[in-house]
Specification:
10 strands, Rossmann fold, binds adenosine-5'-triphosphate, 286 residues, binds magnesium ion, six-stranded mixed sheet, 22% strand, alpha/beta
């Protein structure tokens, strides 16, 4: 397969169409725009981004710093409303956070005063699950993530990789159909990162989640995603929406992987250069 052929395999146009047809998008993002502030100081973070994500798809949002990846993810999560356009979950407009979406952040958002077990079961207690039922879920999810021997530890006594496992376990325990992940492995060393990427792919396949995963890393996006959405630097617009045509497990050393990596690198570098220019002329606010 030639690399040109690879990049032509854009996500089908139908994928960004109606969300009302059977099997339609679980997450429908229609002309999403977001402006922070007003007047002279206004920052257009997102402009007219449309993506329809079917249930079960693993989507990576890719782009340089400041291109609006977190803004879009936070809008899907319901943390920060759009200023234009709409996002619907299974046809229902997103107006606030909900149990159908779980978020994992880069900075291990755990409760430091709670043990691993308490962190994992926190959301279950809030939901009012019976003790025995919550116990069973905590045990199963801890087993899935290799945390069974760490349930009594506090976050400060765990490595970054283990803390991120707990963050994923907390979300998985609540079993939302959609997992939103904002550079969750960005702070990890390369080996731990690869291990957690593999764990995430296993969990995604086993639990059949829809995942929207933000990353700066082109290799991470190609390794993980069914589909990669590349955003432009300010305003964040859709630059490319492509299906990754590689079967799993993916070989990062293969010719096809590296051809795709080179082509995506060229796209991302164009935006990175716009970011760098903006930064050097003092117009970047990141
Ligand atoms: N609360 C805010 N107020 C003003 N501007 C904001 C706010 N949040 C984000 N921005 C701006 O919106 C743009 C997009 O920010 P966003 O955080 O979504 O980018 P990002 O792609 O996630 O970047 P990074 O890779 O650095 O996390 C940036 O220019 C940023 O400075
Ligand atoms: Mg971000």
């Amino acid at each position: 397969m030639t690399s040109t052929a690879t990049l032509r395999r854009d996500a089908p146009a139908a994928a960004s169409a109606s969300a009302s047809a059977p099997g339609a998008a679980e997450i429908a993002i229609d002309n999403a725009s977001k402006v922070f502030g007003t007047g002279e100081g206004a920052v257009v973070a997102l402009e007219d981004v449309s993506v329809a994500i079917p249930g079960g798809q693993f989507v990576c949002l890719l782009g340089p710093s400041g291109c609006g990846k977190s803004t879009l993810l936070n809008a899907i999560a319901g943390f920060s409303p759009l200023t234009g356009g709409a996002i619907r979950m299974a046809g229902r407009p997103v107006t606030e956070p909900g149990p159908d979406r779980g978020m994992v952040f880069q900075e291990y958002a755990l409760f430091p005063w709670m043990t691993v077990e308490q962190n994992i079961r926190f959301g279950l207690d809030i939901k009012g699950l019976a003790r025995g039922e919550a116990d069973a879920i905590v045990a199963r999810i801890a087993g899935t993530l290799g945390l069974s021997d760490f349930l009594g530890r506090f976050p400060k006594d765990l490595s970054g990789g283990m803390r991120q496992r707990v963050a994923i376990a907390r979300i998985l325990a609540l079993d939302p159909p959609v997992m939103l992940m904002d550079e969750p492995f960005g702070a990890l060393d390369a080996l731990t990162r690869r291990t957690l990427q593999d764990e995430l792919l296993r969990i995604w396949a086993e639990y059949r989640k829809t995942i929207v995963f933000v990353t700066h890393s082109i290799e991470e996006a190609i390794y993980l995603a069914d589909r990669i959405v590349v955003l432009t630097y300010r305003p964040g617009r859709m630059k490319r929406d492509l299906i990754v045509p590689l079967s799993r497990p993916r070989d990062t050393a293969s010719t096809e992987f590296n051809a795709l990596k080179r082509e995506l690198a060229a796209l991302v570098m164009e935006e990175q250069q716009r970011y760098t220019r903006a930064e050097m002329t003092g117009t970047a606010v990141d």
